[in-house]
Amino acid sequence: MAERPGQLRRIGGGISQLLEKICGFSRRCVFRVLSMGPLPNHLAFIMDGNRRYAKKRGLEDGSGHKAGFSALMSMLQYCYELGIKYVTIYAFSIDNFRRKPEEVESLMDLMLEKINSLLEKESIVHQYGIRVYFIGNLALLNDQVRAAAEKVMNATAKNSRVVLLVCIAYNSTDEIVQAVKKSCIEASGNYKHGDTESGIEGMDMEKQEKRIQLVEIEENMQMSVAPDPDILIRSSGETRLSNFLLWQTGNSQLCSPAALWPEIGLRHLVWAILNFQRNYSYLEKRKKQL
Amino acid sequence: MSFPIVLTFLALILVFFLVPGLFISRRLRVSFSLTNIVRFIKIATSKYDDEEERNEKGSTMGEKVKRERHKMPKHVAVILDGNRHWAEKRGLGTSDGHEAGAKRLIENAKDCFAMGTNTISLFAFSTENWERPEDEVNCLMALFETNFKSEMPYFQREKIKISVIGNRSKISESLLSLIGEVEEATKSYEGKHIIIAIDYSGRFDILQACKSLAKKAKDGLIEVEDINEKAMEKELMTKCSEFPNPDLLIRTSGEQRISNFFLWQSAYSELYFPNVLWPDFGEAEYLEALTWYQQRQRRFGRRV
């Protein structure tokens, strides 16, 4: 009699393993079909809706973000399985520092825990050979999170298969201002150099002014390590950029599925990619014209 | 059994395996119970109910929008997309499409101001549009000239300030002098402002702001450490406006892209992508956009 529950549990476990295998197989079939068409090179995600999800389910405040993290891991797995090389996520904005201090602190603690977990052997980083970048004004973070982020960046610097860019303490306008500042400093450094080098100051200064080209601002941006995103997906149905990748998404496809971030699934990713493939030939024609 | 029947059977089996794979994700194990299927059907059909209700409430929408006047967008930006598609659908030439678009533009501007918007920005011609066929580009430039001339009395009567932003180096002399005339004649008006972007590119805007800041730093007018977001805003081409950042950005024809329009300025704008083509975007569609805008919860990164 006591054997029955144990037997039932084993049978249940066996069935769920079988279901997972079938799901994995059908997912790989779907990906095979998708890769017949053009695939995006770079996907960006705005992970919106964690707090609303927790409220909807009547959970406590912090668990929305935890559910959001496991949704993120699944999405990363799907993206890398499909063969998308660059994935960028909007983890924490500079505007978010203006939230309640308790919420900011709990978010920082969660991020510290998850960043440290990326270094573990079973983590997704080692499974897919991910190189991780942390993009943003890292000086605004507390010392522990910054140190952990730098540790992860150094530890994964040799990986080259796929890239994950985590935007933390990030604002696109802040990124542009930092790039502009850098370009100005470089330009004025050139001016000073020009002065001491030769006496023909006027000509040198003219040349230096012309040198602040688009290329320089782009090179000085932190996001220059990756190409421009092809698709930007923002969950929870809001259609706003919220100061994320403004410079880089000028020609990106914007998608706003209505699902909250912890509810996002494979079908939203597949739908976004199908839409991208629909517009691809037209966009390629326009890019060639440029 | 004959071959087509076997094929159909195999296809059905494949679909039976593949479709659940899309819906069963790792975390949410939704079991195939009756209650879940009923729930799924209810959610799928509720979308159609909303649309029917909206059509019935058509006339009362305008009144509802007017009641919420305090939630009006101060600055509305529009990407005028779909003129060529509109012309193709009707078997007309591209120039007819653009003419219809221009007519629609003037009508919509009147509606916008009537609803309480202060500034309207229009993406009339982008830097990338120079690559279009030469006769289309010439037709567009001619359209700009004709409409500036014909609508001048209207702008002066209604006291609308006109500004043209963009890179002026490639525009013809006649159009440039016309633009100068219109801007000079309307520069003292306040309260209503139309910003027309001709040969504009968001990246070029940011680049020219950077160059002018670099020059100021070199001339000693500002310190490099003082370069911040406010300093950038004062150098961008939208500095001519009291409200440089659009609250609502509309792109018609269903394409969901910003296409290098206001990159910096649309950081917190609500983006609205109706499927209607620009020459068909009338008062009813604009009212829909406003109702949609008024329902948005704008948090700017904080909690409400």
What features would you highlight for this structure?
heterodimer, A: 290 residues, alpha/beta, six-stranded parallel β-sheet, 10 helices, 56% helix, B: 304 residues, Undecaprenyl pyrophosphate synthetase
Mean pLDDT of chain A: 85
- Sheet with most strands of chain A: 6 strands, parallel
Number of helices of chain A: 10
CATH topology of the largest domain in chain B: Undecaprenyl pyrophosphate synthetase
**Shape-level CATH architecture of the largest domain in chain B:** 3-Layer(aba) Sandwich
What letter string, H or E per element, gives the SSE order of chain A?
A: HEHHEHHEHEHHHEEH
Secondary-structure element pattern of chain B, one letter each: HHHEHHEHEHEHHEEH
Q: CATH first level of the largest domain in chain B: which class?
A: Alpha Beta
- Largest interchain contact: A-B, 67 and 53 residues
Strands in their spatial order, largest beta sheet of chain B: 3-4-2-1-5-6
Q: How many structural units, i.e. domains of chain B? A: 2
Strand order of the largest sheet of chain A: 3-4-2-1-5-6
CATH superfamily of the largest domain in chain B: Decaprenyl diphosphate synthase-like
In percent, how helical is the residue content of chain A? 55-70%
